[in-house]
Amino acid sequence: MSILAATLTHLANNEAYHDLPYPPEMHDIANLDKSREAYDEISCWPGYAPTPLYQLDAIASEIGVAGIVYKDESQRFHLKSFKALGGAFAVARQLQQRILAETGETASIEDLLGKKHDAVVKNIVISCGTDGNHGRSVAWGCQMFGCDCVIYIHRDVSAGRKQAMEEFGANVIRVDGNYDDSVKQADMDASSHGRIIVSDTSYPGYMDIPRDVAIGYTVMLLEAVEQMQGAVPSHVFIQAGVGGLAASVCAYFWELWGDRRPRFIVVEPEQANCLQQSAASGKPVAVEGELETLMAGLSCGEVSLLAWEILEHGADDFVTLSEDAVAPCMRLLANNDPVIEAGESAVAGLAAAIVARENPDMALQLGLDESSLVFVIGTEGATDPELYRQLAKNQ
């Protein structure tokens, strides 16, 4: 009997450079030196601690793989999401740049935390469009460093996630549209009001700040590599919205391990598979429509251009996951030993790995067998506690 009754669609990436070294031209987007710099700064933030890496031995044994390692971001600071690393880090970078421009001084993280340049910082307004977790990180960063914040959310973002951002002092504005509409509205209003957009997606004319967001994410990868103590996974299943996280993981492991890097599988919802469709078309493609998915953090219709520069040749496979896998996988982890709190978007990578291994044809296509060591990231915890109770606890 299968652990998860769900379906996958698969697209092999014929443009993958799997056996080639990390391309030099991609160093401007992400590299190991920038990751170490981000770690040095983020590890100084109040409350920093590495998040756990769990061995899911029981699940691995049941589906017939050598192992599954699960990086649990539900315990990242008090935001319960890997996004805490990216948005707040990019906020700090923007404040440092403004301070340098206005005072000629180079501000350290300690200077920002100590409010040394409050006269400059308090007049800055940071803004973004969000599904929830990125905006929460941006709002938290603004509160931590002392600037104002305006966040745009779309019609499907839950009241709980809206409230979480407001609790960090953000002015949260709901727009009538999807995620991409909220990003566009934030950008338009920022131009009118002199705000700084800190987005996790890149588009023509907006590339530099998303680089900082993505570099912030790699702190968890530096931790994970140390926690794996020399083991190199054979497969990575990583969930994607606009592709920023997936590209960060791909680039980090690609540069670190070269031709020993894992097979890299991007996982998306069926109704919001902009990366899979882009791979099929050989160029970035926008998915139109409602983008309805329970995996709210992955409900994105337009590819981040920076992410595509890496994933176009860095990803080996693109798969979509059906919605019926989400709640059962959340419950599977809630009943694990130890108990793991995983939100709706956290389980996509793990669920896809389980479903793929239990389907003989899919397992063959992805090279999954009894010798495989699978790496996944649980990207969020119960960032909407009420929804988590409904899905993971059946309450």
How would you describe this structure to a colleague?
This protein is an alpha/beta fold and 395 residues long. The chain folds into 2 domains: 8-81 and 214-392, Rossmann fold (3-Layer(aba) Sandwich), CATH 3.40.50; 83-206, Rossmann fold, CATH 3.40.50.1100. The protein is 43% helix and 14% strand. It has 17 helices and 11 strands. It has helices at residues 32-42, 57-63, 83-103, 109-113, 118-121, 133-145, 159-166, 179-193, 208-217, 219-228, 244-257, 274-281, 305-314, 326-334, 348-358, 360-366, 385-392; strands at 8-12, 53-55, 67-72, 125-130, 148-153, 171-174, 196-197, 235-239, 263-269, 317-321, 373-378. Helix 6 (133-145) links the parallel strand 4 (125-130) and strand 5. The radius of gyration is 20 Å and the shape is globular.
Spell out the key features of this protein.
alpha/beta; Rossmann fold; 2 domains; 7-stranded mixed sheet; 4-stranded parallel sheet; 17 helices
Ranges with pLDDT <50 over ≥5 residues? none
Portion in beta strands: 5-15%
Spatial ordering of strands, largest sheet: 1-10-9-8-11-3-2
CATH fold-level assignment of the largest domain? Rossmann fold
Task: Determine and state the CATH class of the largest domain.
Answer: Alpha Beta
Figure out the total of helices: 17
Quick recap:
This protein is α/β, with parallel strands linked by helices and 395 residues long. It folds into 2 domains: 8-81 and 214-392, 3-Layer(aba) Sandwich (Rossmann fold), CATH 3.40.50.1100; 83-206, Rossmann fold. The protein contains 17 helices and 11 strands.
Topology of this protein?
Layout: E1 8-12, H1 32-42, E2 53-55, H2 57-63, E3 67-72, H3 83-103, H4 109-113, H5 118-121, E4 125-130, H6 133-145, E5 148-153, H7 159-166, E6 171-174, H8 179-193, E7 196-197, H9 208-217, H10 219-228, E8 235-239, H11 244-257, E9 263-269, H12 274-281, H13 305-314, E10 317-321, H14 326-334, H15 348-358, H16 360-366, E11 373-378, H17 385-392
Parallel strand pairs: 3-11, 4-5, 4-7, 5-6, 8-9, 8-11, 9-10
Antiparallel strand pairs: 1-10, 2-3
Helix pairs in contact: 3-6, 3-9, 6-7, 9-11, 11-13
